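in:
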């Protein structure tokens, strides 16, 4: 079992709470951050531009991805151009389609050739990955984000599609793969083993990495101690 220092996969925190992002940025093994509209809603963000610029100033030396939120292709393009001006460390997240199912491959091809760094997100299939890599190949530095965790939630084996994505991106000079929708620490080990470039996960999962390699016997004992402490704290009694 590797220690954090042994991992080759880059570790990004997925979230939008500024305090958490600043805290995680202090850890030398965290290299970037990803956000999305759902996380922004949870964090109570209303002024997107002001929030983003403040965040970029707080973590200027880390990758950070900000997503467009429009559902119309032309406005998505306009929003992408605005987001790209927020900092040199900023990648613009664009979904593989809008809610009508209209693909964005032509748009990311255009923006990437103009120098916009893209994080192309919500990918699930080999066909989507192939089309994405074809569109981004030869452009600005870019990322394709494959949602392994959500595939697993639906009962699909995510490993074949993750290996396919990594293999395809490794054949380019500018494209990396993010393992997204991470569910547990073990996913970090899986991503590292297949040579995935990046994995993004909530802070509470990444903090657990500091316990990598603990002996199962020690985990067992701590589990029992937790049961005993909780029973005592709850004041549980049972006549025997």
């Amino acid at each position: 079992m590797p220690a954090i220092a042994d991992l080759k996969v880059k570790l990004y925190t997925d979230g939008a709470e500024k305090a958490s992002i600043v805290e995680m940025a202090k850890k030398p093994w965290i290299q970037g951050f990803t956000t999305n509209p759902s996380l922004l809603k949870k964090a109570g963000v209303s002024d997107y531009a002001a929030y983003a610029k403040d965040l970029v100033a707080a973590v200027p030396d880390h990758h950070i991805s900000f997503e467009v939120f429009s559902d119309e292709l032309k406005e998505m393009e306009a929003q992408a151009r605005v987001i790209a001006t927020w900092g040199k460390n900023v990648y613009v997240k664009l979904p593989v389609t809008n809610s009508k199912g209209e693909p964005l491959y032509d748009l990311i091809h255009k923006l990437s050739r103009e120098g916009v760094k893209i994080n192309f997100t919500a990918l699930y299939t080999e066909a989507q990955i192939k089309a994405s890599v074809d569109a981004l190949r030869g452009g600005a530095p870019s990322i394709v984000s494959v949602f392994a965790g959500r595939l697993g939630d639906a009962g699909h084996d995510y490993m074949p599609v993750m290996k396919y994505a990594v293999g395809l991106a490794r054949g380019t000079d500018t494209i990396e793969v993010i393992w997204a929708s991470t569910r547990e620490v073990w996913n970090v080990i899986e991503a590292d083993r297949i040579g995935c470039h990046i994995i993004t996960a909530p802070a509470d999962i990444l903090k657990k990495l500091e316990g990598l390699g603990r002996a199962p016997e020690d985990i067992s004992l701590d589990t029992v101690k937790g049961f005993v402490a909780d029973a005592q704290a709850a004041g549980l009694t049972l006549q025997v």
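note: Residues 228 and 234 are 10 Å apart (CA to CA).
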